[in-house]
Amino acid sequence: AATNAEPYLENLTDALNDKDWGVRRAAVESLVALGEHATPAAADVAQRLLHHDPDVRRAAAECLGRMGVHSGKYAGHVEGAVETEEDDDVRRACEKAAAQLAQLTMPSTP
Asked: How far is CA 56 from CA 4, 49, 65, 78, 92, in A?
């Protein structure tokens, strides 16, 4: 599956920049559904946390949060964005994503 997904990862991350909310939503859903096969795209998704358009930043934060462990080392970028984001909606999306990612690192209790 990874071989089949790889050629399309760039298209999916580029779709996060689209002006159409539906296209951005489809890109997020697709990257999340790809699971471990989307891990190579995490760097490109994290890069969009710095985009000039707040809708793109919000989509990137949501995507990384929902990618979970498959966001890899880029999960920390979401937490950093919480501290620096000026747009309230994007900051809330970053906070939600950071909480989702933090749950993955919490030790489970018996």
From this structure: 26, 7, 14, 13, 14
- Does the global pTM surpass 0.90? no
What tens digit of pLDDT does each residue of 61-101 get?
A: 999 999 999 998 999 999 999 999 999 999 999 999 999 99
Three state DSSP letters for the chain: CHHHHHHHHHHHHHHCCCCCHHHHHHHHHHHHHHHHHHHHHHHHHHHHHHCCCHHHHHHHHHHHHHHHHHHHHHHHHHHHHHHHCCCHHHHHHHHHHHHHHHHHHCCCCC
Q: Confidence band (pLDDT; 50, 70, 90) for 107?
A: low
Token representation of residue 94: 């970053």
